Structures are given as structure tokens and as C-alpha cells.
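Model: Ready when you are.
Researcher: Fold this.
Model:
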Amino acid sequence: MLNTIPRPILIRLSYVARPVLAFALKGTTFTDPIDGKSFKSFLPYGYGTQRNNVLSPSTLSLERHRLLWLYLNEKTDFFTAPKKVLHFAPEQAFYKLFRNQKNLDYTTTDLFSPLADVKADICDLPFEDNQYDVILCNHVLEHIPDDTKAMQELYRVLKPGGMAILQIPQDLNRAITYADDTITDQKKRAEIFGQYDHVRIYGRDYFDKLRSIGFTVVEEDYTHKITPELVEKYCLAKGEIIPVCFK
């Protein structure tokens, strides 16, 4: 029955009655690596067309959140070394976890989010140059008309030697990023761009655009560095690339 709940109702239930959902789906088949809890299935999620078995009942993480958490936990010192962190549009899956990390000097920012410590425009940030060891800005740039300016601002406030993880929805079968501002119908934009408020579909050239800003970019294909069994158990999107950017 849970898999047939309409998306808007599902989202409200997920936030309000998360413990009930987690209990109802308790099992051993799939595990959320963020909190280690296991379930017989995850929940469906998606804008328009839903993806089955992707939303964790406990942390509300999606595939990209779990992949990022695995990478940070297993391949970086994010959870152990002192870090000054700037987190754009903080995700529910991470917010409390990162806020409670004693090693992190953690600041959140967004133009509208109630979780933002600093209300700010990503294209005109109120921070000094070279301030942050780590920047997390995930599934934000596809909403920004002037993503070049946003990338320049991210580069500016990152410390030399710092790391920025800049995940985006990406079509790896597409060589060139696609945008078309003449499409104004919201339903048509959602059909073409994935959401009505996305302004482009990033292709493989996304990584080179980041490099043109000055970043050194590692195209981290982390799902191919863990076993297929873990990819399935953690409900990850096989082949999803984490853009790990260094200054």
C-alpha cells in the first residue's frame, strides 16, 4: 500500500510520520548507510515519474545522498579532521548529522530554505575569499540561470586546497548541456528538464565547465569502486558520478 501513496501525500507522511514509516517497512533487504537501518523496501520518489525503492524511510535520503555519504565517510577525512564547511540548500538527510559533528565548523546557506544560517544568493555570496575547507552544493546549479557566476563564487570562497562537491542531475549520454529559455510552459519544462524549475540538462561537458572556472575536477565513479551487492543493498544509482572539485 505504501508504494501507491501519491507523491505529495508521501512527502508529508515522510516528514511527519517518519518513525511509523520506518517501522512499517522494517526488514533486512535494503540498508541506509547513513544511519545503518535496514528495511524490506525503500519508498518511491520522483517528480512526475516516480522511481521505486529509492527514498529511505529513516533519513529521507535518496540515491545521491547515500552515495555522497559513502564517499565522504570512506574516502575523505570529512568526519574526523577539523573542517570549515559551507553547505548550500542543506538536505534533510544530512542537516542534523553534519550540525552535530564536533569536528565541523558548519554553516548552511540558501536564498529561501528555513534551514539556512545565512540567506544568500549563490551568485553574490556575502563571504570573504578563501574561507571554506569544504563546500557542499548539490542539486542547486541546475536551478541557477547564471551558473557560470555561481561557480565563480563557489571557487572564490573555497580555500586553496579545499574540496567542493557539486552534484547535479546529469545525463551522461548527452555530450553537451542543453537549455532552452523559450520553453515557458511548466508542464513542458518538467517533461524536458526533469522539473519545471530546472533551467538546463547537464551533459558530460559539465566537468569541463568546472575546470574552466579553475577547479581541478575528479569525476568520481564511486559505484564502480564498491561491490554490485552493496550498490543494490544501499539502493544506489549505478554509474552516477560525484563531481569532486579542488582549488
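Researcher: Now this one.
Model:
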Amino acid sequence: MKLYYSPGACSLSPHIALLESGLPYDLVKVDLRAKKLENGDDYLKVNPKGQVPALQLDSGEVITEGPVIVQIIADRAGKELAPARDSAERYKLLEWLNFVTSELHKNFGPMFAPALSDDAKAFFKDRVMGKFKYIDSQLAGRDYLMGKQFTVVDGYLFTILTWAERMKFDLSDMPNLLAYKARVAARPKVQEALTKEGLMKAA
């Protein structure tokens, strides 16, 4: 498999999933502004959407959209990165993946837009903070979103939390969320992903 990524972007989520899975993969860096690969090739020929992540399977087929990609990785890993397909727990995972992608990820997008006014960005920040408070309440007594087991949605939420840190969100009144972020950050494979993307210095 081949993962197309940009450092610190939402592609960090499937990168974490791949490392946690133990599956072999190649990592290909994308210049999102230029839509070019490191060798100068046109990224739009890989993914016409022009976004990351994209996962090229061994068959040559390219899959896009992070929540789908991480499930493919989990299912191929055969580990407990996602509950079994058709189980009640799998649908709960889908619920969380959908929440993170639609309620958090999509509300962060405008805050990265230079053209947007500060007032508009404040609107989206307030909206995201409300979602974080909900997650904080759901994490009471849990190690991870699905309970005791780390799953692919945790890599996704952690990625979003790195953006919140970059934007200096004050999460000090959300102790469950802060403890969760620290717990995920301490995982060796998460640290490996951050190091490989140049977001953390190697120990």
C-alpha cells in the first residue's frame, strides 16, 4: 500500500493507523498547494480531488476520504483497530468517525482560510469548542473513544487535537480530553508517525 500525505494534515490519521496495524506501506509526500509529489509528478493524476489522504492499494486502486481509509487499514490488519464488521460496536465506531469528520474536521477547515475574517473564525472556533466539550463528557471513565481499546477513530481525533494545539485552543476546563490527548500522544506508533512527518524530533 502507498499513503499520500502532507505533514500534520488529516492524513496523519491513516498514517497512525498504518503504523499501529503493522502492515507494510510506502509514504509519499504531497505539496498540497502545488498539487505535486516530491518527484514533480502531478498529484491530481493520483487523486483528482487534490486532497490528502489517498491510499493506493496493492491492486492499484486509489481510495480517498480518511474515515474510509482507516477502516480499510483496520480490516486488513486483523487487529483490534476496529470492531468486527456488522457488530453493534462497529456502528458505534462509524458514529464516532462521522462525528469527528463532520462536526470537528469540517468546522476546522474555515479557520485555516487566510481570507476569512477573525469574527468568522471565532464563530467556527466556538462551534468546535462545543463539540470538544461533548467529547470531554463522553470520555469520563474511558481510556479511548470506544472504551479501553485504541481504535482508528482515536488517531483521527488526536490529529484534530494537534490542530487545536497549533491554534492555541484553551482546553484547560476539559480534563478528560486533555488526559486522552496525552494518552494517545504517548503511544509509540503515534510518536513514530509524528517523527516521520517531521512534527516531532526523534528521541
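Researcher: Key takeaway?
Model: Residues 2-80+190-196 form a domain with the Glutaredoxin fold (CATH 3.40.30.10).
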